Inverse folding.
């Protein structure tokens, strides 16, 4: 069973206490608005130089083709002419390198 103190005592707070409580609620609400990120007129956004550098690098990376066609065509010609003969060690190194690359992705 829940006991409601107002049922027995009535509301015994004087009016001035209730008004003070209301003002306290209003001021805490304005503090909450400031903490929640209310924007001041003096606030300014200054991007860091690192952000600018990252954006430039992203632009440069977007211009690099996924397939380096010049290397692919040169290798294709070597294979067709029989001039491409990798050693077993070169093949093993390439396989290990590819496995390491796939693990990081």
């Amino acid at each position: 069973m829940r006991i409601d103190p107002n049922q027995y005592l009535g509301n015994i707070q004087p009016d001035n206490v209730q008004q003070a409580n209301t003002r306290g609620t209003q001021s805490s609400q304005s503090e909450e608005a400031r903490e929640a990120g209310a924007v001041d007129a003096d606030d300014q956004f200054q991007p860091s130089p690192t952000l600018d550098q990252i954006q430039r690098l992203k632009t440069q990376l977007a211009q690099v083709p996924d397939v380096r066609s010049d290397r692919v065509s040169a290798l294709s010609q070597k294979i067709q002419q029989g001039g491409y003969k990798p050693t077993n060690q070169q093949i093993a190194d390439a396989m290990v390198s590819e496995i390491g690359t796939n693990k990081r992705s």
